[in-house]
Amino acid sequence: MTVVLKLGGSVITEKDEPETVDRAALSAAVSAIAESAVGDDIVLVHGGGSFGHHHAAEYGVSTTAGTHDVAGVQAIHGAMCRLNDAVVDALTEQGVPAVPVHPFSAATRDADGDLSLPTGQVTTLLEEGFVPVLHGDLVAHAGAGATVLSGDELVVELAPAVDADRVGVCSTVSGVLDEDGAVVDSIESFEAVAAALGGSDATDVSGGMAGKVRALLALSAPAVVFGPDALPAFLAGESPGTTIAGDGGD
Ligand code: IP8
Hints:
250 residues, alpha/beta, Carbamate kinase, 8-stranded mixed beta sheet, 4-stranded mixed beta sheet, 12 strands, globular, binds Isopentenyl phosphate
């Protein structure tokens, strides 16, 4: 059973404090992973939270707006590496064989914005018993310099590459919410929830929950969106929150 799990950046950082890890939340998430039966068959991805997004906003960089400013590139990528260090350290302390994988060193976007992400290192690390820990990052972007590569995009690329059986997205909300604020149990088509999600820009998967749902619908593995308290249940094989059962993009 191979699992790809994304820990949202706002779950593991203090949203309003630049470059501040939420130690209690990170430790709780790491304990759930360390104690789960998923063992080594897990690929982790974490988002930017108050690390990447803080600097990306300062330099005006997004998934579509790039920069050629080397100081901006270093600030954004450097902050994400610092958060990745904190996550890998926390996992290591609890006995998880975590190793860092930095997407900026490997990924590219072409001039149309299409992403290319080599995944041989991730599949091999997984086969060799490591837990690869990737993160939202920057990506070299033809014609634009460097743009943001979101953790959600990474999840969508990684799940088929590692032949994931399940995909989990742990965010600060307990699932995808309908117009009344109730958690939607399952989603099988974007149209069914488009109104509640307020539509979406299909080219920008960092575009909030709408972009996330649209991207996860394209996977063949079921994806589950849930809040931090439900992480142990997800890792135990349950489907808390919202299950997004797409058609694999067919
Ligand atoms: O929080 C964004 O990753 P996300 C990473 O998964 C940066 O969207 C560099 C802001």
